[in-house]
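Before relying on records like the one below, remember that each one covers exactly one chain. Contacts with other chains, cofactors or solvent are not represented anywhere in the record.
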Amino acid sequence: MTPSNVRKMVKRAGERAEIGFPVHPHNLRHSTGYKLANDKQDTRAIQQYMGHRNIQHTVRYTELAPDRFKDFWED
């Protein structure tokens, strides 16, 4: 399978799903980061899994999960 085939396949899947914006293979990478963050995985573990050298590239996934630290402290 060529990179071009993958791009076309992902694009068609996005169109069929009526997502409303162009979908690229890199969107799959981002969705993985958001999924891991929303599942409350450790940020450093996500960083290593995603292969980010800089933690700031990983933090973006936790910023959109407002309940990520909801039960951090028990009152």
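The CA atoms of residues 13 and 36 lie 22 Å apart.
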